[in-house]
Amino acid sequence: MAESTSKLTNFKILVFNVYRTLMPLLSRYPSAKWSCADILKEFESVEKEIQIVQLDLLYTDVLAKAHEVLEKHLDNLYGKPIPDISDVYVVFSNSIKNWFIFSDSSEALHNLAKYYKLVVLSNVDHTSFAHTHAKLSTGDPSAVSSPLYACPEPNPNDYWFSQKTEGSQSSFSLILMVQDVHSYKPALPGFLTALDIIQKDLLDTSTLKDMKEKVLSSTEFVS
In sequence order, what E strands does the chain have? Predict the structure, then answer.
């Protein structure tokens, strides 16, 4: 077998998604036959459909709508009356600030940042990500948003270059949310926007030309 020529040391930029959404919805339906894997698959399907149809929704609103759609689907399957529990959707949509980070995530990111420029390209919104950003930057699982880890308002830069905030411990050179790229992944425009910004502001070279061509020719992305 030929040895692969692709090595991590060949790269200068690492791009992270950061989140994988978990759904605690099944606990409300003890008779449901869905496994956790089933509901995660269904959630991702519903979430993607909402993101395609309602592109301007912030991710918190996407979460709330996806929770509502899935709960009604489970109700239709298992006969549970649909109560007026819209507040549950809101609670779920605002729960990102409480989502945990893995114990080694912060240290690992800071170690990687010694050798690479780290970029976030996520479907989450700025307000929600600020809480996760604080956790990942400080290593404190109870950390919450602060001016050090929130997107500056007003922002002196075109985009959120988090390490430019004085006193920040962020390991990320660039943070891009849906509000910045105006596209939910896996749609292509967000990736192209990220590559343009990386080339212009982080590398200032033409080294991303081949990457762009690969992204444009990939069959994994949808418009």
Answer: 13-16, 117-121, 172-176
